[in-house]
Amino acid sequence: MKFRNISVLFPVLLFAMGVAQINAEELEAAPDGSFTIVVIPDTQHYFGEDTKLTPDSTEPLTNPVFDRLTDWTVENLDRQRIAFVSHVGDIVDKNNREQWALANRMMNKLHGKVPYGISVGNHDMRSNGDSSLFQEVFPKSQFEGFDWYGGCFDKPDGSVAISGNNANSIQLFEAGGLKFVCLHLECNAPDDVLAWADSMLEKHADRRAIITTHMDLGPREKPKTNQEYFSLPKGRMTWKKMHGALGNTSQQMWDKCFRKHPNLFLILSGDQSRTQAYRLNSTGDQGNTVYALLSDYGAEGLRAMRFVTAENRIEVRTWNPIEGRLCESTKIVPERQQHQFTLEYEMTP
User: Fold this and answer.
1) What is the CATH number of the domain that holds 245?
2) Residue 231: in which H helix or E strand, if any?
3) Average per-residue pLDDT in the chain?
4) Does 146 map to a domain?
5) 53, 100, 119, 328 - which has most CB atoms within 10 Å?
6) What is the pLDDT of residues 108-164, one digit of tens each?
7) Domain count, the chain
8) Beta bridge partners of 118
9) Is 342 exposed, middle or buried (0-12, 13-18, 19+ CB in 10 A)?
10) How far apart are CA 38 and CA 51, in angstroms?
11) Are 193 and 258 a contacting pair, CB within 8 Å?
12) Residue among 212, 232, 236 at smallest CA distance from 223
């Protein structure tokens, strides 16, 4: 994701200076019999010394957007009946220890309070797939004490720099009387990771499956100009950024793995700030509907996905906790139905 639109950046700057009004309103509480999955979009909004947004600054490193997103999530665990939190990746903007230390403090607010998973984005690793710094901060040892943590992909040779040590992880949780398996897969996951994902989805075929992977929807063909990021036809991407020849495009990940599993119903992603919000309905090989949802909102908000089990629907609400309002429209995606919508999903017997 590239975050350079000054009209989107402006409220973040106001918030960083303590000017923006916070919590002007609250998202309506989740009713009895429902639960919520929170989706945190790319959190690359770092300010201060040695950052891309403020390269000339000598101020301490901050990330007011990330700070507010995780604060709101913790504050609303009970009110929104939050059962799980998924981060779509691009946790940092520059892959250095300073930003990772701050990211760790942001995500640790959730630690021990709610199950959560993190996808590794392209900004979170080197181009060859080396995610060593992510692994230092979010190793599997940090999660192994939780009964909801199902483990991670381990290479047979024991190496960890590329794809190892929680770079691809599994979470198991229950909510509303339903059992879920959630996989967090790195950007452009290679074949060995997809083979592991296949085995995990088969092992937990009795659970409803969610996959979060950083790069899924956006311009189908690789843009050659900045304008083409906005104008090219959207869908499952046929180009990639990471892992070189070993990496899989979003389309390849669907074809090689995702489409085969009848328990899969939801794919979450980020990465494309110039698409910002997009959704695609696909049909798996067994006839199952798979909803793919892209959210890369910058300072415009996070996603609160409310599962209303008795009515077989998922109410997707894009909420801006910085300004305390629903995100009804953006300059990039003005249509309200791309931000506030409902998905039909069978949850009752």
Assistant:
1) 3.60.21.40
2) helix 226-231
3) 93
4) yes
5) 119
6) 999 999 999 999 999 999 999 999 999 999 999 999 999 999 999 999 999 999 999
7) 1
8) 87
9) middle
10) 27
11) no
12) 232
pTM of the entire predicted model: 0.94
As given in the structure block, the two tokens for residue 175 are: 């909510």
Asked whether residue 142 is assigned to any structural domain, the reply reads: yes
Examine residue 177 and state whether it is found in any structural domain, yes or no: yes
Take residue 76 and report the two structure tokens written for it.
Answer: 């609303």
Residue 243 and residue 213: Cα distance in Å, rounded?
Answer: 14
**What is d(CA 163, CA 130) in angstroms, rounded to the nearest whole number?**
7
Residue type, 259: R
Residue 86's beta-bridge partner residues?
A: 39, 117
Range of the structural domain that residue 183 is part of: 35-311+327-341
Closest CA to 88 of 294, 291, 247, 330: 294
Q: Token match 């080197």: residue?
A: 126
Partners of 87 in the β-ladder:
40, 118
Q: Average of pLDDT values for 2-29? A: 55
Q: How confident is the model at residue 7 (pLDDT cuts 50, 70, 90)?
A: very low
Average pLDDT over residues 7-31: 60
Is 234 in contact with 223 (CB distance < 8 Å)?
Answer: no
Is 2 a domain residue? no
Average of per-residue pLDDT across 8-20: 48
- Tokens 């992603």: give the residue: 269
- Write the DSSP symbol of residue 47: B
